[in-house]
Amino acid sequence: MSDPLLGPVVGATLLAPHLKFASHSYQSGMGYTLVREERVSQEMCDLWNAPALLNNPMHILAAANGHAWLRIVEDRNCTTTTPLKTQGWMALEVNVANVDVIRKEIDTTVFKIIGEPAYLQISDAIKAMQVIGPCDEVSYITQIDKPVPPFNLPMTQARTGSLFIPVLCTRNRDASLAFYEALNQVTGLKFDTKVTVLNNAWDHDIEHQYPVATLQLAGNCLFEIDQVTHAHPSALNAGSLPSGIAMITCMVDDIEFAAKQLKLPISHISNAYYPSVKVILATGPAGELIELVERPVS
Q1: Top CATH class, 11-79+242-294
Q2: For 93-123, how does the pLDDT look when each residue is reduced to its tens digit (9 = 90+)?
Q3: Superfamily of chain region 88-227
Q4: Which three-class secondary structure string do you get for the chain?
């Protein structure tokens, strides 16, 4: 099998009606550190096609492992979104050393528990809990005890670690998977499985199964694609970004190939959040936004 062109995942961007509250929630409740306070530049507005965000404040937060992957942008006029029922980026799976410690210490007035810590049905090496955060974002907080073949997944000794699986909600799994397979040049896996948080959100029988796909990326990361046939369209904001999980940023090995594949221009942005200056913003089949950033030469 050829090496994936996509990965690792750089991070996720949340759209927040109240930036300071959202940022403080991650710092106090999850042990993140504020590493930079910035304002949205003209270059970013042009890339995102989001003129209403010009000069809006944003925070870059680092997890306990030092990876500054969480970017929160303020839009005081953004609409609310419905977690687990909206097309686009549905959840962020984040690595932790001990999920039970997070459960004990997390502020449940800010992070609503929708799934208590439990080992997954598919593996006794993965223990996870699920929460809804201050921007209506869903997080899967995941402890990985040992390797889980055939997947390449990270393990950490840090209290909180990196984003390693962005989870996509789509009405058509096959179309979404084909879109990312073409960019990644690696074939994904397709299967049906129970997704308890979705069954609870949609009032389905607890054993109801969903068409799901996974796509292995470089850097011990994956995309997960969940087909939710009746999912609502993304919550869009005029001149801004989608509500909730606004976008995912991911490295790509060959950005010229990606630009040709997507028929999109390459932008140049100099900002510490990006590992290099060449960036593409693409819209996927479920309306999700994904930034592709040229992977630096190691």
Answers
A1: alpha beta
A2: 999 999 999 999 999 999 999 999 999 877 8
A3: 2,3-Dihydroxybiphenyl 1,2-Dioxygenase, domain 1 (3.10.180.10)
A4: CCCCCEEEEEEEEEEECCHHHHHHHHHHHHCCEEEEEEECCHHHHHHHCCHHHCCCEEEEEECCCCCCCEEEEECCCCCCCCCCCECEEEEEEEEECCHHHHHHHCCCCCCEEEEEEEEECCEEEEEEEEEECCCCCEEEEEEECCCECCECCCCCCCCCCCEEEEEEEECCHHHHHHHHHHHHCCCCEEEEEECHHHHHHHCCCCCCEEEEEEEEECCCEEEEEEECCCCECCCCCCCCCCCEEEEEEEEECCHHHHHHHHCCCCEECCCCCCCCCEEEEEECCCCCEEEEEECCCC
